[in-house]
Amino acid sequence: MTENNLSNMQRAEVLVQALPYIRGYNGQIIVIKYGGNAMIDPELKMQVMEDIVLLWLIGVKVVLVHGGGPEISEMMEKLGKKATFVDGLRVTDKETVDIAQMVLAGKVNKTLVNLLEMQGGNAMGISGMDGQLIEAKMKDERLGYVGEITKVNIQPVLDLLEKGYIPVISTVGCDKEGNIYNINGDTAAAYIAGALNAERLFMMTDIAGILRDIHDPSSLIAELSVSEAKKLYDEGVISGGMIPKVNCCIDAIRMGVKSVVIMNGCVPHSILMETLTDEGAGTMVFEEE
């Protein structure tokens, strides 16, 4: 059924069915980790912004944490610099971290702020360096200026939420000596959500969630406890690039997040499907009571 085929009665019924979810999320903090193809495709990007502004308008306190790896690689290529990776992490020398800061805290961050404002939201862009939000140290000398988070000073984010803004956070951090570090987006989102005691963290990725069989989309695991996740590691169901993502989910829960959802950001309006419907749109990871 397309939007144009919905009668006024059906539209009203959709809103009524969403009411319990609206009531449950009103005044709650949710953190959205945004990146991947959903961030590259202009139409998908606009739909994500629409979802965020709608949630903000119904009283949800939304924090958007974004990456920008493809944009960094693109800028490096334009500047004649080749991207190198070790164990999936970008080797980041001094010149590369300057590029990362320019792209993440500048171009990507301000573009997202502008898009949210265009949809009617009040957004404010900050980086992990502002207010020393993300303090970090060198993770591995082989990787250069790739940061390991040592502390999160969450007050700047709380101040923005209190003033009614949607904080948009780029994942660069710094240390006491002023060195700048590129921070993994999933890790940064987990730490920020934990420091906020967020109701939920949404990890937007390029797949539907955790699948029992990676070749079968219908094998999606809708809900997964932390202890069950550990069993799936042993069974090899959680493998490859999903391992660090699920580790971030578990870390976020250990730090105070109520639940984490791994979801496909390439599905239109997946955020609204997950927050305001029964079906959901991914795998929810939670801690047993």
With strands numbered from the N-terminus, the spatial order across the biggest sheet is: 5-8-2-1-11-13-14-12
By secondary-structure content and strand pairing, the structural class works out as alpha/beta
Number of helices: 10
Mean pLDDT across all residues, rounded? 90
Fraction of residues in H or I helices: 40-55%
Order of helices and strands: HEHHEHEEHEEEHEEEHEEHHEHE
Radius of gyration: 19 Å
Molecular shape:
globular
Task: Give the total of beta strands.
Answer: 14
Quaternary assembly: single chain
Low-confidence region ranges: none
What does this 3D model show about the protein?
This protein is α/β, with parallel strands linked by helices and 289 residues long. It has helices at residues 8-25, 37-40, 42-57, 69-78, 94-118, 155-162, 185-196, 226-235, 242-254, 270-276; strands spanning 29-34, 61-66, 85-86, 89-90, 123-127, 134-138, 147-152, 166-170, 172-174, 180-182, 200-205, 223-225, 259-264, 282-286. The strands form four sheets. An eight-stranded mixed beta sheet has the order 5-8-2-1-11-13-14-12, with helices on both faces. Helix 4 (69-78) packs across helix 5. 45% of the residues are buried. The mean pLDDT is 90.
